[in-house]
Amino acid sequence: MALGTVQSDTADLQTPFRNSGTLHIFSVSGLHVAIVGFILWKLLKAFGLRRGALLGVLIPVLFGYAFITGLRPSAVRAAVMASVFLCGALFHRKGDLMNSLGGSALLLLAYDTQQLYAPGFQLSFAVLAAIALLGGPFSRPFLRWVEPDPFIPRVLLTGFQQWAWTLRQQVVGLFTVSAAAWVGSLPLTLGHFQLATPVSLIANVVLVPLSFCVLFAAVLTLLSAALHLTAVQALFSNANYLLAWLTMKSAVFFASLPGGNFHIAAPWFEETPPAELVVLRLPEGAAVQHLRADRSQWLLDTGSSDHLRYLVQPYLAYRGVDHLDGVMLSHNDIQHAGAASQLWQSHAPPFYYHAATEPWRWDASTTAFKKLRSEPWPGKPLARGDRLALGESGSVLVTAEVLHPPARWWSRRADDRALVIRFCLGPHRILWCGDSGFLAEKALLEHFTPDELKSDVLIRNQHASDASFLPEFVAAVAPKVVIASSQNFPAGQLLPEHVRETCWERGILLLDQSQTGAVRLKAWAGKLEIVPYRTPGEVITLAATPGG
Fold this sequence. Notes:
This protein is an alpha/beta fold. The protein has helices at residues 10-19, 23-26, 30-45, 51-68, 73-90, 97-111, 119-139, 143-146, 159-193, 200-226, 230-255, 305-318, 334-337, 340-347, 368-374, 438-447, 450-453, 471-477, 497-506, 513-516, and strands at residues 195-196, 262-263, 275-281, 287-293, 296-300, 326-329, 352-355, 379-382, 387-393, 396-404, 420-425, 428-434, 457-460, 481-484, 509-512, 519-523, 527-532, 540-543. Helix 19 (497-506) links the parallel strand 14 (481-484) and strand 15 (509-512).
């Protein structure tokens, strides 16, 4: 918070601050520059410096603080804004926040016009402009509550009464500034991050004073260290630790309040189909699909921890998904189920569905499926013949039928134990094969007839070491579209050439995700639209077949 250092574990620490609308407290921003400037102003005034000399020291120190924090754009912007505002005093002019914002914007954009399109730049100026314009009107209804009786001379107020009135003024000031800042930032946070945090109205009233205390203790720690006051330094360091702990716990508390934060799907103007399935493209052979049936939200695999943090969670936020009705884990592989524990902590799905053959008897205790057994996660096994109703919207009923593996199917390779599920989005059949290979395809051909396997869309990844996409299996499924992952590294995740040849020979449309990116399937009762992410203007439409 004080120096802007970034460590490997800070991403998890940022989450409660982001969800409580107080991320500006966690990361170095304009608030930190303002607090540091205020602290230094008070310390320098104690030495009796005149205003001109005080400002001559303070402005370079603010830029020095921005420098030691890594010249972060937010810190530089705040230093420029503060300097423009303070320079008015050098010319005996009363500072005006709106004029200072305009001057700061001209200076920053003259240096780099591209900053205009940066979310941080937009938020900084929108928030301060909202505070300048709305702070006064928002505080007027509270004037009678924060001002003592005008007919009572101030000298007659007791010390406790003066302290009480000052406390009221500070609380109301924090609340009205927080409200104005929230109103100013709301359109941008919805547009850029699809996130609304009404709890920030209260959270900032608590966390801003705490952050002030944290930074004040940090400054005193540095000063005592410079003066070689070791005992005093230790005292302030421990106080800083306690204040930082209180700040973190407060952020976690406010972030956990029901309705305190929520995401809104974007774009809001887009027609919403009754059901849809989005096949995300993840690196390293990982796979994640998001299935929505009206308001029911399902995730097929989780990816690894890094995939969840940098790809899956931002995607869920973009789609306005704050909860999951269930997660299906195809098999015990770190690239497919490695983030199950983190997802359970962030979205708390009521059930984790997994193959009944998992975990394998010799799997390590640290794997996701072993944790399903050792921790109080709500896990449910699935085997061939199981059916699930996932949701219904109008005339589109979404169901899942498990085709593989059987309840007693043991193989040393995890890919051979992977779930194969046929999803029915109304009349549209989608076969999810995942990493399944030769053994799974042969087992499906032996147990099911071609009519039972026939599907409109086949979704597949690469088996780690075995052949897959057998000609007889493709003939039985008879898909119109195949969605396949492909990665140049590792070599085993590269889309085999025979898959391309088979699709070309049979007239099957192959969507190679290394070229198309994510693929979105939108289901209506009469049609299925398939939209590749990288070519959104290209829409593949499949008409519903009679009888499904």
